[in-house]
Amino acid sequence: MIIKAHHHFIVYPFFKIYTLISIRRNFHEVKIIGEATEKNLPMLVVANHFSWWDGIFVNYVNMKKFKRRFYFMMLEEQLQIYSFFRKLGGYSVRKHSRTMIESLRYTQELLSKKSNMVLIFPQGAIQSLYHSTLIFEQGIERIVNNLSNEIQLVFIVNLIDYFSHPKPTLYIYLKEYRLNGENLSEMQDSYNAFLQECIEANKKIVDTP
Questions:
Q1: d(CA 187, CA 129)
Q2: Which of 49, 45, 92 is nearest to 70 (CA)?
Q3: 30-51: pLDDT as tens digits
Q4: pTM reported for the whole predicted model
Q5: Of the candidates 39, 40, 72, 69, which has an alpha carbon nearest to the alpha carbon of residue 156?
Q6: Tens digit of pLDDT for each residue in 81-95?
């Protein structure tokens, strides 16, 4: 049986405040680049996963642009250790187990409500920021192919650079992905192409102290 999310009426609002304060204290600047048009649909976000911060980054974008109820999938063993994440919208998945199907169905249930945003890290584990190619797990394909309603799928790439500042600048790149019966390989290739575009764009940034 999976661990389902339960937004606590005190902890979840506090998490929103914590997100804003943490970003302000720890980053020199945040730049949100790109667009995802508001369509009043449930939103599935696919993002790279290189740090503890990644969920906070996406929640920050959600608060600034989309204002949906935030959910995120995380490994069951991690959620058992950090059980408070459940109160923030975290729910569990256990790889290579029977309960994985239950996690995917729960994700589909969350994506049936237009007020919800679900974050998934498709590579399934934290990897170095210097990985320029991500290998997607199969779960995301199953989720998308078995939905009974329309959703909005948004790619997010988070990158950081310090340049001459003691605190890093956070670059959050957005791109809407149009679902049209693509398979996992096509979605993976599209994301990796976008990731490369973002990396190349960051290389061209000129520092302005």
A1: 20
A2: 45
A3: 999 998 988 999 999 999 999 9
A4: 0.94
A5: 72
A6: 989 999 999 999 998
